[in-house]
Amino acid sequence: MRSTAEAVRARVLDAARREFAAYGLAGARIDRIAREASASKERLYAYFADKQALFEAVLDLDTQEFFEAATLDPADVPAFVGAVFDHALSTPAHHRMISWGRLDGFVFRPPDGVSGPEAKLAALRQAQQLGLVDPCWDAPTLIQLLFSLGLSWAQAPTRHSGENDAAVIRAARDAAVEAARRVIAPR
């Protein structure tokens, strides 16, 4: 069972996630976060030095969850693009937070370890060594391209017709995965 302090901190982070995803750093209000978390502003500041520190904590959580949501199997690299697509579609607040972070000039601190970017790069390099991915690609460049393919639906500058239609979404996902398959295909 969590201590009261841990429970309050978790409620603050949860409320902050919704507030920052909706309004960004500049538009978010600490008083709304505190009220939604059933915590005083003083308690909130006991855990986080200021609004920016709270924003960074939320951004770190969302970034970690984003990286953990999409694994990269060297035997099936295109499936990674599908996992990124699915996560962006199922958790639009994460994508909004990452967008707010970029707009505000934050440097992302992706998680280290099994789910972090280094593990994904290692898996991609392994796929290249196995002959499953064209070795002409620089792995860091390729991983960026694969992320972009997976995020293509979420990042499109216009609303999609049929964006709530499961068949349209499935076709868009399939197209992103097929594009990845073609990009990585050994020559």
From TrEMBL:
What the entry lists under PANTHER family is as follows: HTH-TYPE TRANSCRIPTIONAL REPRESSOR SCO4008, TRANSCRIPTIONAL REPRESSOR
SUPFAM superfamilies documented for this protein:
Homeodomain-like, Tetracyclin repressor-like, C-terminal domain
Among InterPro entries, the record links this protein to: Homeodomain-like_sf, HTH-type_TetR-like_transc_reg, HTH_TetR, Sco4008_C, Tet_transcr_reg_TetR-rel_C_sf
Q: Does the keyword DNA-binding apply?
A: yes
Which ranges carry the HTH tetR-type domain?
6-66
Gene Ontology terms: biological process: regulation of DNA-templated transcription
The protein's matches in Pfam families, at most eight in alphabetical order, are given as: TetR_C_21, TetR_N
The GO terms this record gives for MF are:
DNA binding
Entry annotated with the keyword Lyase: no
Alphabetically ordered keywords of this record: DNA-binding
Q: What organism does this protein naturally occur in?
A: Subtercola boreus
Positions of the DNA-binding region: 29-48
Q: What is this protein called?
A: HTH tetR-type domain-containing protein
